């Protein structure tokens, strides 16, 4: 690395060393990151963690999408909120806290509850959508369909009980999509059963734990930076990664591109 570029007093100097370690042109990587625009859909535990990491690493613009207010039970894992913030909009407090950490950041707030696929059209296109919201149940399929229509890259980040889940990282025209493989089972039911399921799911609360959220966000952050900075291998392309916390185990679920997929199979490369 050129000693004329590296400055130990620069706020991003340690990140710069990491990019150099991976064989990238550190200056070019940081310049790309500073010009990048990322959208985070869901400002809960994962959204808090990953927005903090992106903001402090110099991402130029972050759009935060949510309509929820902060509740006292959020504070165990939504690390940028405090007791005095309870009953405030998540996006308002998140904007405040991110700007405390990087005043050069451009934050765009989108107060939006996504109830239908068409609601996604209210979100501006960006370099990357990070989907960290876990409701409604159909959200990831709506995002997948919408992003292929609009050629919008996205990354799904979440958890299943004790498992931090990262991926797939979807780049329309290049990778497989969420629909290419049976990642989750489909279900078909009549209207009455669907109404009952909707009622049950509306009161369902998934188990969540701070470390599970944090691991998912941190691991995903590595792939996000590679994509934005144009260096290294994106590990969650064409796969979903599961990191267990009850035991030492990492597993992957491969998602090969399905040429017969009715969402992306006919997409031009």
What does this structure look like?
The chain is globular. The chain has helices at residues 13-21, 26-34, 45-56, 90-101, 139-150, 191-202, 210-229; strands at residues 37-41, 61-66, 106-111, 128-131, 154-160, 163-170, 239-244, 250-254. It has an eight-stranded mixed β-sheet with strand order 3-2-1-4-5-6-7-8, with helices on both faces. It is built from seven helices and eight strands. The two termini are 35 Å apart. The chain is 32% helix and 17% strand. The protein has a single domain (12-254), classed as Rossmann fold (3-Layer(aba) Sandwich), CATH 3.40.50.720. With 269 residues, the protein is α/β, with parallel strands linked by helices. The model has no long low-confidence stretch (mean pLDDT 91).
Which helices and strands occur, and which strands form pairs?
Elements: H1 13-21, H2 26-34, E1 37-41, H3 45-56, E2 61-66, H4 90-101, E3 106-111, E4 128-131, H5 139-150, E5 154-160, E6 163-170, H6 191-202, H7 210-229, E7 239-244, E8 250-254
Parallel strand pairs: 1-2, 1-4, 2-3, 4-5
Antiparallel strand pairs: 5-6, 6-7, 7-8
Helix pairs in contact: 1-2, 3-4, 3-7
Q: Give the quaternary arrangement of the chains.
A: single chain
The main sheet comes to: 8 strands, mixed
Q: Any idea of the CATH topology?
A: Rossmann fold
Query: Regarding CATH, which class?
Result: Alpha Beta
- Overall geometric form: globular
Beta-strand level of the residues, as a percent range? Answer: 15-25%
CATH architecture: 3-Layer(aba) Sandwich
Structural class: alpha/beta
CATH superfamily: NAD(P)-binding Rossmann-like Domain
**Ranges with pLDDT <50 over ≥5 residues?**
none
- Into how many domains do the coordinates divide? 1
User: What is the typical, i.e. mean, pLDDT?
Assistant: 91
CA radius of gyration: 19 Å
- Summarize the helix and strand pattern as letters: HHEHEHEEHEEHHEE
- Biggest sheet strand order reads 3-2-1-4-5-6-7-8
Specify the number of helices.
7
Beta strands, count: 8
**Proportion of residues in helical segments:** 25-40%
């Amino acid at each position: 690395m050129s000693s004329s570029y590296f400055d130990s007093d620069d706020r991003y100097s340690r990140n710069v060393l990491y990019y150099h370690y991976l064989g990238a042109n550190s200056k070019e990587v940081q310049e790309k990151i500073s010009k990048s625009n990322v959208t985070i859909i869901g400002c809960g535990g994962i959204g808090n963690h990953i927005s903090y990491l992106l903001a402090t690493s110099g991402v130029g613009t972050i759009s935060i999408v949510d309509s929820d207010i902060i509740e006292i039970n959020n504070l165990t894992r939504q690390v940028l909120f405090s007791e005095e913030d309870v009953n405030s909009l998540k996006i308002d407090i998140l904007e405040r806290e991110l700007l405390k950490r990087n005043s050069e950041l451009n934050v765009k707030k989108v107060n939006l509850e996504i109830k239908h696929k068409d609601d996604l059209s209210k979100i501006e296109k960006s370099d990357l959508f990070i989907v960290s919201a876990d409701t409604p149940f159909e959200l990831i399929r709506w995002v997948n369909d919408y992003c292929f229509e609009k050629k919008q890259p996205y990354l799904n980040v979440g958890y299943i009980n004790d498992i931090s889940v990262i991926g797939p990282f979807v780049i329309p025209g290049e990778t497989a999509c969420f629909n290419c493989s049976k990642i989750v089972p489909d279900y078909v039911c009549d209207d009455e059963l669907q109404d009952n399921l909707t009622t049950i799911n509306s009161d369902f609360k998934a188990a969540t734990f701070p470390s599970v959220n944090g691991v998912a966000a941190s691991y995903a952050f590595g792939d996000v930076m590679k994509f934005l900075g144009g260096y290294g291998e994106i590990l969650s392309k064409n796969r979903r990664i599961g990191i267990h916390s009850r035991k030492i185990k990492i597993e992957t679920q491969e998602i090969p591109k399905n040429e017969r997929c009715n969402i992306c199979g006919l997409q031009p490369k």
